[in-house]
Amino acid sequence: MHLACILPEVILTLAGVLIMLVDPLLPRTASRKPTGWFSVLAMVAAFAASAWQLHLAPGTAYYGVVQTDAFSVFFHLLICGTVLVALLAAIDSVRPEAHDMGEFFALILLGTVGMLLMTSAVELLLVFIGLEISSISTYILAGFRRRSGKSIEASIKYFLLGSFATAFFLYGIALTFGATGTTRIAAIAAALPHTTTPILAWTAVGLILIGLGFKVSAAPFHVWTPDVYEGAPSPVVALMSTAPKAAAFAVLLRIFYGAYPSIQQHWWSLFWVLAAVSMTLGNLAALRQQSVKRMLAYSSIAHAGYLLVAFTSFSLQGIAAASFYALCYVAMNVGIFAVISHVGGYDDHLWSITDYRGLAYRSPVLCGAMAFFLLSLIGIPFTGGFFAKFYVFSAALQQGMFGLAIIGLINSGIAAFYYLRLLTALYSKPAQGSPVLAVPRMSITLGLAILLSASATLLLGVVPRSSLDLAQRGAGTLFQTGHPAQAAVQVVNDAPSQ
Amino acid sequence: MAFDMYLVIFLIFGALCIAGALNLLLQRHPINSALSLIVVMTSLAVLYLLLGAEFLAAAQVIVYSGAIMVLFTFVIMLLNAGEEERTRGSRAAYLVGFPGVAALLGLLTYIFLSVRMPLGNAQLGGGTLVTTSDLSRVLFRDLLLPFEVTSILILVAILGAVALARKEES
Fold this sequence. Notes:
The complex is a heterodimer of chains A (498) and B (170). By secondary structure, chain A is an all-alpha fold.
């Protein structure tokens, strides 16, 4: 029973260690692609194991440190699926002569272990260790293009700011312990109403929010995002802009709804401000970008803002909307970065919006996929992006957050402008006299990666029912972990009707 | 007046700890920073002792002040780090950074001072975490999984160090 609760993590750890053991035994000149295929296989196995966990009775293991429930399974499936697509996009995008690809794939697998642990941990110490595993592996992956100064700069910036953010998070955990005498999420929820030092708990909430705000790149903690996304190799950006963020959002949901529901009146306004600032700053800055990767970096900041809107709504619908938004966001974002990692190349020789002009004439299939992801990022109906925004804003409106919903809708309009600018560039004729750079043929793995993410985005926009059901089941288990949470929900939900 | 004595010891070593940490940042020569780190580690050990965690205090002295610091000084001496290049620093850091740090410090100081009394009798784990066997019960039973998963964390860090430091063949 204990091992079953961490089965996906065990599979990925074993696979990662195996790759590291086999890699030095391969001849120096041998291609490292088989290690990539092996990691794809391991990720599929982890995905299947997570889906199988749904049939287990919800419960904790290892003395109440990890919890398997619909919420953790939802995020397990989301993360495994995303990393799978990112792996498929990476296998053929990286240089064929590279000798360090064994480490590349092992780092991705072990980093995924950290993300999975973050989503299922109900002990803050384990959350912290999972967060560190996932962060450290992404710091290294960001610097994998070692000949490029930009890549090294990205890695160092990400490392310094990320470690700084983790320190805030850790301090928040320490003060939580000071206020409640425990680091178990359910126990914190139970002890919090009786604490003699509530001000410590409020400070802890602020520090934890700062730490995780960095990880999900919410403004004003977003400054690292554009530089890091620009410098890191595109297949790595496909990974790090999606799966670790989803894991951090899962942690935010678990900590704030699982451990701190009783002081919700103190933290919801922080989320209000974070959401409004992230949406506005992200979209306004994206308008001015020339580089496609920088533009998408700012767009991801804005999307973090939309997702944070759901946190202001203290209800089951709010949690379900946030989870569903995370799912749609990773599906379309990993897809568009998979396209970019092929079109732009591993060394980013095509980077500006002007370079992307006339892509439709060079490579219609790739261009069609990119256009579809852009439409989903705008939030056009029949794409995942539409329903994601719809549920988030309706959850906010249910709680009477009219101001935030209006800010969000205005922002969606601004966002449409810069997405459409790239979209029209894709379908317009290349500028006279500019050299037409050839796009290499699409490989089967990349085609598979794009097909998977595009069909996920399409299915989420046409038949969102089943994934939304799972998100709602997950939201339900989140509220059950601490009984005071349910009581608090009752109070909050009853308040407007009186 | 045992409580007052604890408070005095706490204040002395707390101040020493912060002063050591500041000195660590302000010193220009790496070896001086490393020596200030020893001050920080040792004062932390005294603070652990005040909280009733004898084993943790002893481990702190042996592992951090002893083994890890020796390693640090060895590395610094082997690398023989020269003088660093000095810059004036960015203006943004002066305009925003220092007031920001001052505000954060002020806020935390205010918070800690306003709840000073309850903090006076804080105890690790409800006061049950005293002996080695208590500690091992926590480490190998209650927190077994986080303890084991730390090995993955270290593995990832080693892997990264190897991947980033390896010479690239051309």
